[in-house]
Amino acid sequence: MEHDGTNLTVTEAVRSVQLLKIDGYCATAAMEALEFIKSRWNIDGHEWEIRFYPDHWHFFEDEEMLFPFDDKLDHSEWVALKLILVSEPQRDKLRVNLSCRLVCPSQHLDPSQAKTVSHVFNRHSKCSPEVLLMLKHKLPSSGYIVNDSLTVECTITVLGDLDTADEPVPPPSDLRQHLGELLESQDGADVIFHVSGESFAAHKVILAARSLVFKAKFFGGMEETSSEHVVIEDMEAAVFKSMLHFIYTDMAPELDGELEPQAAVIMAQHLLAAADRYGLNRLKLICECKLSGGIDIGTAATTLALAEQHHCSLLKAKCLEFVTKSPETLDAVLATDGYAHLVASCPLVLTELLRAACERKI
């Protein structure tokens, strides 16, 4: 584009800067990974919500970085924020930037480095990616917590309409839709799984591409290499069906609101075991995160046993933290049937439970 050197405005933008102040910050230590503090803003005729996560789990999704017996490497814990579009968008696309930094109200400390994220909001995408503001363990010594209060400066910039009529825009990826339809239609399926009285047709090459365990079964010289029928023991049909759907679509709707909360927790427990069995690291991490956000008196002991059996050290730590947070909680958990199961199936974890209780002096 050529112009004569004078100022040229090609877009318009609406910007709002506000301070998100969190008093009594020490109380956020009791918040789970999926819990947040929210603040509502009205900008450019839209209702927005800033969500502040004091304990956000950021998972490493590159499977080459994951080691099945070293769960300490699968995530890091951050102070993070997300931007949510609460109202319906007034145009097809809202291009928005969220910028956040920690500030000191007394100004004795310079603001932290600003962290930003940009996102295109529409009717089908109302949540931005997270802004990873600071590693959680670095925050207490950073100097930004003053008198048990933390202040975050948030800047939201909403870009005006762009003239893109002459620019072709590629449609979003529909790969998961097509693979899901392939699974449902069974076209070209070359293996049938028999699970708890039900049968599921699938494609060996897709299973092998997603799971090293299936790859070894079908292309590694094992007995199932040429078999068209495989019997799966010790798994419910509904769990295998959900796992198969995840392999094809990378989605687990049963964990994302399709089921009632209690049923979703039970499904997450079974899916975690299935994911560990077949080396589906991403599904295992999703289940671990789901379970960590829903630990209560009734599920703490059984979830702790599950975490111990399937090498989920982070979920295990969350369970220990919950059980030992007060004498009343510990007594309530010890009285559950789940604790009896824990004693019978994972007796060695009782030493760690006792150590955690001693460290917290309950």
From TrEMBL:
Pathway: Protein modification; protein ubiquitination. InterPro entries: BACK_BPM_SPOP, BPM1-6, BTB/POZ_dom, MATH/TRAF_dom, SKP1/BTB/POZ_sf, TRAF-like. It comes from the Eukaryota. CDD domains: BTB_POZ_BPM_plant (cd18280), MATH (cd00121). Residues 189-250 form the BTB domain. It holds the Pfam family BACK_BPM_SPOP. PANTHER family: BTB/POZ AND MATH DOMAIN-CONTAINING PROTEIN 1, TRAF TRANSCRIPTION FACTOR. Belongs to the Tdpoz family. This is BTB domain-containing protein.
